[in-house]
Amino acid sequence: MTAASDSSLFPQVPDSADAVLDGLDPEQREVATALHGPVCVLAGAGTGKTRAITHRIAYGVRAGILQPASVLAVTFTARAAGEMRGRLRQLGAGGVQARTFHSAALRQLQFFWPKAVGGEVPRLLERKIQLVAEAAARCRIRLDRNELRDVTAEIEWSKVTQTVPADYPAAVAKAGREAPRDPAEVGQVYTMYEQLKRDRGVIDFEDVLLLTVGVLQDRHDIAEQIRAQYQHFVVDEYQDVSPLQQRLLDLWLGERDALCVVGDASQTIYSFTGATPDHLLNFRTRHPRATVVKLVRDYRSTPQVVHLANGLLTQASGRAAEHRLELVSQREAGPEPAYVEYADEPAEAEGTARRIRDLIASGVSAGEIAVLFRINAQSEVYEQALADVGVPYQLRGAERFFERPEVREAGVALRSAARFGGNDALLDDAVDLPSQVRAVLSTKGWTGEPPAGSGAVRDRWESLAALVRLAEDFAGARPGSSLADLVAELDERAHAQHAPTVEGVTLASLHAAKGLEWDAVFLVGLTEGMMPITYAKTDEQVEEERRLLYVGVTRARRHLGLSWSLARSPGGRANRRASRFLNGLRPGAGGGTARRAAGAAAGGVERGAGGVAGSVRRRDRSPARCRVCGRTLTDAGEMKLMRCEDCPSDLDEALYERLRDWRAEQAGRLGQPAFCVFTDKTLMAIAEAVPGTAGELAGISGVGRRKLDRFGADVLALCAGEEPADGCADDLGEGSGEAAENSSEK
């Protein structure tokens, strides 16, 4: 953060309801003013959906149409709920409840439990995995560490899909879900886990929703009391709603339709937890009178980034793909996405770290850079690489900012200084608010220069530095503010979980990056087996992996890097390939099939002269890459085919046999070996591409101008299913250089 962002950090509260609408585009304004009846907002990445719905709530409150206490806005993460509360406060609608589904349900459960059941709510089990391990042991089922994690996830999925233990095997089969163990065994563990919870009087995270649903279904008086309290609902990230959450929402609503939902089916990346975009896609069916608004103006990313994001989805299939939104960038042009292939993983991490160091040197803030990967286990090599080049970083998914010990200590120190600072010699030389904060935090470990290296000391310093920058921004936006004013601001932010930015490159999984954005994003480890992940077997699972990559791409505002490595470790076998999702999108990588190429062209992302499979031009061969998977080619035969030997082939076998027969006849007439006419690989390339013109035939490796003149008419006739003209080819003389060079390919 810099002083330049003061106005956005601490904006002035709009002075009227109409002023709340200032700065909204036509579609956002339509959302903000549609305050009655069901509303469905289909919002693409970077289109300002949070801005639209918070201004909608604020406009309704400021216009007197909505009472703050009667509005419940729900989302899926505490961070998103905190951001929403912070924005509503800045718009003058601070009394609105913005919570996660679980937080809202737990609050209601705690309030109504004595009336509905009696006594206190059972203790909430913070980590269920230990109890799952005990349940497995009691069933005499041995689970290794990974199986334990996966079985725990299966129990969570069962509960949010409202599947009881006895029905688990059938539910798994119906969903086409791959269980980590025999479904009957998982069902046994699930049964024992529920029994242990009952015996010990504890509930888990999913029980909060289940019990709240149970109370509202059984006690109509309590349901009516909640409906009287909350009369207007807003649901963010609606594509991630599970059947259980939808059931709770239906009970909150009753027979009313005062509901606004916001989502994007192309960002559905949590189906493994039970989330489904069906509720979003079926919204108009359930609510025929609904107002539907589509937000497609992308204010986040450059046209180059949006171009790639749109291209990814043009290759997608399935129901979510049918409802994809075509984004339109509203930003000025930026650099093209960079595609980089490395020899091995350490080289990829080191190369990425150097590029990040160069970006920081060019003026990009470290806090505005992210490295995103598919699984958390990939982070370690990047932590080391960034530390080696002296670049600070932070791991996403760590504890909440205001719950960090150093932040708590800093808050106590600042509060004490605000009360008694006049008698504190520490503040004698502090002439303004930022210098006062720096003086106080210097006693807690903050220094003008960051400590060297990484680790806990650096993490602590980064937290304190974030508070210093917040103080600087606060003072810039509110001249004359006191230390007590800043403490009050920190208290409000802590309550809303509206954390300041920690200065450091973010390392995060693609799932954890959802809802965030940076100036520069590096998507790393984009190899087959990692993206899509190896256990994505079904078409539906593979498409979710594509959407996950789409989410990663759309996190970038300006700079976007995509990289992969050919081997895991230095000197290892270079048998990896770039992700299939990049086929037809990156320079030199044609689509794998005619259908894919056509889709990519429609999305405006096919580069160069790419057309149907096989029509790869000579100018795309530096470096030569497989037109199916995109891997760099080094074998001469593979380079001739422009694909890996074991990649799927589009070979027209009947044509290939006709070409071989024709070649044998020509070789006999010339009295030369068959490969002097065309090598086997060249014939295969012709039979895969099936060229229709001399230009397309000339673009195939192994067909030079000389051979085109002598054999072109015959070959094109064979490709067209016709018989070649009768006659003998001209003598090739001493034999072509191409034939001699490639004789080993016979």
List the helices and strands and how they pair.
Layout: H1 6-9, H2 17-20, H3 26-33, E1 39-43, H4 49-62, E2 71-75, H5 78-90, E3 97-100, H6 101-116, E4 123-124, H7 129-138, H8 145-160, H9 168-175, H10 183-200, E5 202-203, H11 205-218, H12 220-229, E6 232-235, H13 243-253, E7 259-263, H14 278-281, H15 283-286, E8 291-295, E9 297-298, H16 303-314, H17 319-322, E10 328-329, E11 338-344, H18 345-361, E12 369-373, H19 379-388, E13 393-395, H20 405-420, H21 433-441, H22 456-477, H23 483-496, E14 505-509, E15 518-523, H24 539-553, E16 556-567, H25 594-602, H26 636-641, H27 653-670, H28 680-689, H29 694-698, H30 705-719, H31 737-741
Parallel strand pairs: 1-7, 1-8, 2-3, 2-6, 4-5, 6-7, 9-10, 11-16, 12-14, 12-15, 13-14, 15-16
Helix pairs in contact: 3-4, 6-11, 7-10, 11-12, 11-13, 16-24, 18-19, 20-23, 21-22, 27-28
General description of the model:
With 746 residues, this protein is α/β, with parallel strands linked by helices. It is 46% helix and 10% strand. The strands form 4 sheets. Strands 3-2-6-7-1-8 form a 6-stranded parallel β-sheet, with helices on both faces. A 6-stranded parallel β-sheet has the order 11-16-15-12-14-13, sandwiched between helices. The longest helix is centred in the middle third of the chain and has 22 residues, at 456-477.
What about the largest sheet?
A: 6 strands, parallel
**How many strand units?**
16
Low-confidence stretches: 1-7, 590-623, 728-746
Average pLDDT confidence is 82
Gross morphology: globular
Structural class: alpha/beta
Query: Which strands sit side by side, in order, in the main sheet?
Result: 3-2-6-7-1-8
Report the portion of residues in β strands.
5-15%
Distance between the termini: 63 Å
How much is the radius of gyration in Å? 31 Å
